[in-house]
Amino acid sequence: MRIVFMGTPEFAVPSLNLLLDSGYDVVAVVTQPDRPKGRKKTLTPPPVKEAALQRGLPVLQPERMRRPEAVAEVAAYKPDLIVTAAYGQILPVGVLELPRLGCINVHGSLLPKYRGGAPIQRAVINGETVTGVTIMYMAEGLDTGDMISRVEVPIGPEDTSGALFAKLSAAGAELLGRTIPSIIDGTAEAVPQNEAEATYAPNLTREDERIDWNRSAVQIDNQVRGLSPMAGAFTFFQGEVFKVRECRVIAGPEANAGLGRKTPGTLAASDGKLVVQTGDGLLELTTIQPAGKKAMPASDWLKGARIPEDAVLGGEEQ
């Protein structure tokens, strides 16, 4: 059986390796083009490309999968099955109809919840306590195809998106290994999704990264964890971008010794800790990144920072 694998980020690498280590014939790998990365804008290959080249596999990197020449490139490998995992482009009908066994996707949520490009980040941001992986047949819509198998994965109270990516990546590969045999022998059950339960997880925007201090400490903590270690949540301090990389909700007796009923966003140093009043509760900022600097412990920043009395985070960039 000839398999074409399609994926791009680190999330997809364990699924590719699972197929290869299990002896499946992966005839080609399709991934996104190399992109500039970092401050120096160094052209960098995606993790799946690096993994594929290490295993001696041919790699295709079409800019647009919908272009006829891209479809023809994939068709030339005569796949019996296409497996995708966080590829990053919607497949056209011409690709979906190529393999006799169909196209399946390893999706990082419990469908039909969190369809779309950022299901892992938004599950953390929204305060979910359980998520998972669904393997589904691909259809023309956005993650609307029939479900084949799924596995639940708990979200811990301190899990960041980065930590959850690793958990779901491993769980998805293991689930793929258990699911493919039923697809090959024709015993896989395709279960339609309940459209009434569908929710969406669109790609994150800069506005999703901005902290609204009128929200509760718990909600802001979820936001910070959901954006870590990627772009990070941000606010403004004295008119400059001020990122919050890690924080914790202040609870119990400690919460009663805080800032009182100050304006949400009010910032203060308390016993060597950087504390912010939110719309509901107090939040300690433990790792921060001031404009133009690297991330650092808030305690280190406090040693040299001058915080005006009743300083308030937020506003706009100057």
From TrEMBL:
InterPro entries: Fmt (IPR005794), Formyl_trans_C (IPR005793), Formyl_transf_N (IPR002376), Formyl_transf_N_sf (IPR036477), Formyl_transferase-like_C_sf (IPR011034), GART_AS (IPR001555), Met-tRNA-FMT_C (IPR044135), Met-tRNA-FMT_N (IPR041711). It comes from the Bacteria. Signal peptide: none annotated. It is an enzyme of class 2 (transferase). GO terms for cellular component: cytosol. Its EC number is 2.1.2.9. Residues 1-178 form the Formyl transferase N-terminal domain. Residues 204-305 form the Formyl transferase C-terminal domain. Keywords: Protein biosynthesis, Transferase. GO terms for molecular function: methionyl-tRNA formyltransferase activity. (6S)-5,6,7,8-tetrahydrofolate binds at S109, L110, L111, P112. The keyword Cell membrane does not apply. It catalyses: L-methionyl-tRNA(fMet) + (6R)-10-formyltetrahydrofolate = N-formyl-L-methionyl-tRNA(fMet) + (6S)-5,6,7,8-tetrahydrofolate + H(+). Coiled coil: none annotated. Belongs to the Fmt family. NCBIfam families: fmt (TIGR00460). HAMAP family: Formyl_trans (MF_00182). Attaches a formyl group to the free amino group of methionyl-tRNA(fMet). The formyl group appears to play a dual role in the initiator identity of N-formylmethionyl-tRNA by promoting its recognition by IF2 and preventing the misappropriation of this tRNA by the elongation apparatus. This is Methionyl-tRNA formyltransferase. The lineage of its organism: Bacteria, Bacillati, Bacillota, Bacilli, Bacillales. The gene is fmt.
